[in-house]
Amino acid sequence: MHISLTWDKNFPKGYGHTSIAFLKRCCGFYQAKNGDLISALNVVSKCVKQERLQELRKKYPNAVLIPVLGRNQLPLALAYEIGLPIWLNVYLLHSVSRKLLCAIHRLLHKPIFTGYIRKNTDYILVDDIIAQGGTILALRNFVTARGGNVVAVIALAYAVGSQNIAPLKKNMIRLFLKFGNRLVQLLNIYGIAVSFYELTNSQVIYLNRFTSFENIIKKIAEINNEPYPIIPHFLVYDIFKYNFEVKYEDWHLR
Fold first, then answer.
1. Domain check: are 130 and 45 in the same one?
2. Which DSSP helix (H) or strand (E) runs through 115?
3. What is d(CA 87, CA 26) in angstroms, rounded to the nearest whole number?
4. What confidence tier does 249 reach under pLDDT thresholds 50, 70, 90?
5. What is the pLDDT of residue 239?
6. Which CATH number covers residue 107?
7. What is the arithmetic mean of pLDDT over 58-67?
């Protein structure tokens, strides 16, 4: 049975502190990314805005923090700085180098988390940088599928537009008008999502940049080393032969 992983329509913007450029210029940034917790604590202390941490603590006093635990020590250092209880029982098991991948590659190759979650507990997810949002999405899906409640996301820095974690209605409608139901089916086939509501806002924006559905198919084929991309016949039909209002409701774009 599929567990719905759609975002709540009122999911808040991510809490941010600085720009990616400033963060990367901080002394000790690359050491922190490579496992040095002391460097990570120093970097975090230079970047965080205490008033935003105070706002987070005030709004979610009973929440528990889940940092992205792996070689990168910045998420854990940020969690220490926030001051709320930290859940250290979820780990990043596998993640290919995100900075070397194109956005479609990131959609196809999701980070894998392991561990356990307390059901009916409010969690705040903590990362260092959020760009397309694939890592935080994978962690959020891991928590949600096991009965936890993800109430907020915090990171040191965000790429432009990525502070809106959950997809914006206007972007989903534009994507649906452009590619229709066949894109939803394609995302389902490749295990990416069963609806646009299971993507991040940055992922929706990225898909909107494609000029045609066939170009998405070709890009996936290129990444999967498929020289002759085959478009399943049921993905080729014209979605606009059907009443849009019916499809609009079917995919919950309201």
1. yes
2. strand 112-115
3. 27
4. very low
5. 42
6. 3.40.50
7. 97
CA distance 247 to 114: 36
As given in the structure block, the two tokens for residue 102 are 């194109």
The range of the structural domain enclosing residue 203 comes to 169-250
- Tokens at residue 203, please? 């992922």
* pLDDT score of 8: 86
pLDDT at 4 over 50: yes
User: Based on the domain organization, do 124 and 193 belong to the same domain?
Assistant: no
Q: Judge residue 6's burial from the number of C-beta atoms within 10 Å of its C-beta, 0-12 exposed, 13-18 middle, 19 or more buried.
A: middle
pLDDT tens-place string over residues 8-43: 888 999 999 999 999 999 999 999 999 999 999 999
Separation CA 216–CA 211 (nearest Å)? 9
In the chain, helix, strand, coil percent, each to 5? 45, 15, 40
Q: How many CA atoms lie within 13 A of 24 on its CB side?
A: 6
Tell me how many domains the chain contains.
2
Q: What is the Cα 162 distance to its own chain's centre?
A: 9
For residues 62 and 55, give the distance between their C-alpha atoms in angstroms, rounded to a whole number. 13
CA angle 47, 205, 96 (to 5 degrees): 65
Residue 214 to residue 192: CA distance in whole angstroms? 17
Report phi then psi at 92, rounded to 5. Answer: -80, 110
Residue 209, pLDDT > 80, answer yes
Whole-angstrom distance, CA of residue 133 vs CA of residue 159: 9
Q: Name residue 124's amino acid.
A: I
- φ/ψ of 247, rounded to 5, equals -65, -40
Residue 135 and residue 186 in one domain: no
Q: Rounded to the nearest 5°, which phi and psi values hold at 60?
A: -130, 65
Tokens of 134: 């694939």
Per-residue pLDDT at 128 exceeds 50: yes
